[in-house]
Amino acid sequence: MSALNRSLFRFLAQSLQTHHRFLAGRICRPEETPIYVIGNPSADVDSIISALVYAYFAHPRPHVPLINLPDVPSGSELRRLRPEFLEALHLATHPAAPTEQPWEIEADTTPDLLRSHLLTVADFAAHLAQSSAADTLPAVDAVLVDWNALPNRSPSQKGHGTLPGLEAITFNVVGCIDHHVDEDFLPPIAADQPFLLQPTGSCVSLVVSMLERMGRWTPHPLSSSSSTTTTPQNPNAAPTADAELTTAAAHEHQLSKLALAPILIDTANFTAKEKVTDADTLSYSFLRAKINSTNCQQQLGSIAVGISSGEKLWDHHAFYRRIATAKENSLELLTVAEVLGRDYKEWVEVPSSASSSPGDAPGGSGSGSSGDQPAALKIGISSVVKSLAWVIRKAHHSNSNSNASSAPEAFLAELDAFARQRGLDLVVLMTAFAGPAPSSPSPSPSPSASPGSSPGTAARKEHFHRELFVAVPFAVGRRRDTAVAAAEAFVRRARTALGLERWRARLDEDEAVGQVWLDCVAQEHQQEHDSPAGNMWKGVWVQGDVTKSRKQVAPLVREAVCAV
C-alpha cells in the first residue's frame, strides 16, 4: 500500500522533480538514481499509460515515465496532439483525489498542469541543453514498455542505445514489458526487474500482470474490511488508519481507470475478438474489481464517470466512448503531416543484396542522397483511424490552390514531403475505420462489431474496414530500385497474408474522390511528369483481413526489405 499513499498527480510531480535533481547532479547514490520508463515512439494511449502505470508502482528506485515524443513538449502541444490521452487522464482523475482540485482539459491552466507533471523526450532534450550533465552522465537505466528495442543501437553493448531527439543520452535497458515481436535487442534481465514479452491486445494488460507477479499491485481491492492485522491496535489510531485506507482506495480507483483505458481502446471495447487474449480479460477483471470496490463506491459514488444515480456498477462503455470519440475527432484539428506522424513507427533494415559497411548505417535518405551506393533502407509506417479518401480530402482542403482533380496530387505531395523530412525509402499508410457493410456481393472479413460499439448498437450494421497504401518516394539510382523491389516483394506476400483486394471507396462520402484517386495511382500514370504523383511508385488496396494490424504488417514489410 506504500505506493498508493500518493495520488497520480503527486507521483508525477515527484518523478519530474527527481528527473531535474538527477540532471543537476544532486543524486549521487546509485539506489536513488531514476529508472526511466519509456514507451514506443507512436506515443499512443497504450504506450503513455503503460509507462505511467508501471512507473507509479515500481520501487524501490524512483521511476520516471518518459513520453516518447521528440518534437512535442508537454503543455499545449501535448494537449492538442494527444487529446485521447488527455481525455483518459481527465476521466481517471475525476473526481479529484482528496486534497486535490479538479481540472478541465480546455482550461487555460491545463498546459501548465501538464508541464509540471509530464516529461516528453522533447522536454528532456531541452532540460539537457540547459545543463552540463550530458558530458558526465553514465548510461541511464531504462525499462521499455510497448516495445522492446531502442532505434539507435549500440554496436558493442546489447541493451544499450539512444532515442531520436535525445542522442546525447545512452540508455541501458534493464527491463521490458511488451506485446510485439522480439527484436533481439534486450540483454539478460535481472530477476528483480520486469521482463514479459507476450502477444496481447494491450500492453497495459501485461503491465498489470507484471505488477501483480512482482507483488507491487495486489489483486484485492482496498477496503476497510480488507484491512486485517494480528497486532493489537490503539483504538485512538483507528480513524487515522481508516482515513489513510480511504485515501489509498481513491488513488487506486484513479490508477485502475487509467490502466483500463488503453485495454478498452486497443480491443475496441472487447469487440475485436481477434485481438483479445486471456491477459486482457484477466487484467480487465483485476481492474474492474478495484473500480467497483465497496470502498471506492462509498468514496466516489454516483459522480464517477459512467455511474448513474440508479446504478452501482461503473459503466465502462461510456468511459470507452468518450476516449474513442476524442481520438477520432482529434484528427480534424491536425495538419496532414501531423495526421501521418501521429501514430507512426519506423525501422531500418539492410537488404540482402546490400554490401553492409559502416557507411551504410541506418538513416537512409529518400531523396537519393546516397547516390548509387547500396545501403540500409528506412521504412515508415503510419496508422490513421480515418479512410484514405478522408486524408486525401484533408490534403485538398488544406491547399487553397487545389481543384477537384488535383486532390490526390495534393495528398501525394504531402506524403512525399513527409517521407523526405524523415529520410524514408519506403512508406506504408494503414487506415482503419468503421462504416457500412461493403456493397459488393463478396463481403470481406470483418469483426463481429465495430470499434466504439457497445450493447444496443448492433443494429447499425457497421463493419470494420482497413486500407493499405504503399509508396516509394522519388529517388534515383540503385537505392530506389532496391526500395521498389522491396515494395513489390511485400505486395506479393501481402496479397495472401493480408487478403489484399482492389481498392474501392468504402464510405458514401468517399465516392467523389474514388475514381480520380484510382486514376492517379494507376501504373500507366506513374512516370508521366515530374511531380510526386508521377515519380512515386505507389499502390493501394483494401485489406480484406481486417484482423491484421501494424503488429502483423510491419514484420512482413521488414522481411521483404531484408529478402531483396
Automatic annotation (TrEMBL):
GO molecular function, one term: exopolyphosphatase activity
Matches recorded under SMART domains: DHHA2
Biased composition (Low complexity): 351-360
Entry keyword Transmembrane helix: no
Biased composition (Pro residues): 438-448
Domain (DHHA2): residue spans on this chain: 320-561
Source species, domain of life: Eukaryota
Entry keywords, A to Z: Hydrolase, Manganese, Metal-binding
Any one of the GO CC terms: cytoplasm
Required cofactor names: Mn(2+)
Stretches for region Disordered: 218-240, 351-373, 436-459
PANTHER family, alphabetized: BNIP - RELATED, EG:152A3.5 PROTEIN (FBGN0003116_PN PROTEIN)
The protein's name in its UniProt record: DHHA2 domain-containing protein
